[in-house]
Write a structure and sequence with these properties.
By secondary structure, the protein is α/β, with parallel strands linked by helices. It is 31% helix and 21% strand. β4, α1 and β5 form a beta-alpha-beta unit. The longest helix is centred in the C-terminal third of the chain and has 23 residues. The protein is globular. It starts with a strand and ends in a 9-residue tail after the last helix.
């Protein structure tokens, strides 16, 4: 666990997503959760050492399985965007492990068992502020990467947790995305005043602005290639021809090659169907 500012702790050692903890005088605010039961127990034990008030609150930055499978086991009040709550309404009540398909992290592990979802108990539409100490935590709706995606912002510390909107060392998740909107959100990060903030990726911790710029250019390229296929009225299967092209832009460990290849196969295929071959309805996650 690394401390990036007073009362701001970031954890990147668990499989899945970047976690954060903010122990304030009124209580502890947590950002996202591990997805494995053992990791949840270890994380909760680590949080006991941080102090803070007695209240507990967990913020989910979006509804991705990697960051929501372990939410119920955290046993506290949860906050998320109202569109994230809609995603849960379309899911079966109980999650059952299944074969790898989307290239997500949880699919690389066995023994997750049956898990009951824990939809957010508190929701908002555009902005929400949590004032549990002298400095606030601001939650803002920033669509693009997924339905109901939000950022958690500490304006006084100039720290911004961007979730999966910023992934720099692995292929992005595009299956449930809206690429033009996602690009708009990255432009916000690259322009004043947010370009003065320390940005925390949803997978891997702190990132630099040149890394965000590189992600912007990659997403722009993906969007252009998909639009070109659509202009040619190509079938969705043609998106598989783009996987090798985009995968070559990353320095991928051998053990991750199959996972990240599947992530791009799934994401490009489903994005193309949703945006160019259907009415654009949301895909149920």
């Amino acid at each position: 666990m690394q401390q990036y500012a007073e009362h701001v702790f970031i954890e990147t050692s668990y499989p899945g997503v970047t976690l954060a903890a903010i122990p304030w005088s009124h209580g502890l605010i947590m950002i996202d959760a591990p997805f494995r039961a053992d990791d949840v127990r270890t994380w909760r034990s680590a949080l006991l050492n941080l102090g803070g008030g007695v209240e507990r609150l967990l913020v989910s930055l979006d509804a991705h399985f990697d960051r929501t499978l372990g939410v119920r086991a955290m046993d506290c009040t949860t906050i998320g965007h109202e569109k994230m709550a809609n995603v849960f309404r379309n899911r079966p009540v109980t999650f059952k492990s299944q074969s790898s398909e989307t290239g997500a992290e949880w699919e690389q592990y066995n023994g997750l068992g049956n898990i009951r979802w824990s939809p957010p108990e508190i929701t908002f539409s555009q902005k929400m502020q949590i004032q549990w100490d002298e400095s606030p935590l601001e939650l803002e709706y920033h669509p693009g990467v997924a339905a109901g995606a939000i950022w958690a912002i500490l304006p006084e510390q100039k720290i911004l947790l961007a979730g999966d909107a910023v992934i720099v060392d692995q292929p992005p998740f595009v299956g449930s995305a809206d690429l033009p909107t996602w690009l708009d959100q990255l432009e916000l990060l690259l322009a004043p005043p947010l370009n003065e903030y320390l940005v925390i990726s949803g997978r891997g911790g702190a990132v630099t602005h040149p890394q965000i710029r590189t992600l912007y250019e990659r997403l722009k390229s993906i969007n252009q290639h998909l639009e070109n296929l659509a202009e040619q009225k190509a079938p969705a299967e043609e998106t598989s021809s783009l996987v090798k092209l985009f995968l070559a832009e990353f320095d991928i460990p051998a053990g991750r090659q199959a996972q990240y290849t599947q992530r791009l196969h799934y994401g490009l295929h489903h994005y193309y169907i949703r945006h160019f071959q259907s009415a654009g309805e949301d895909i149920v996650e």
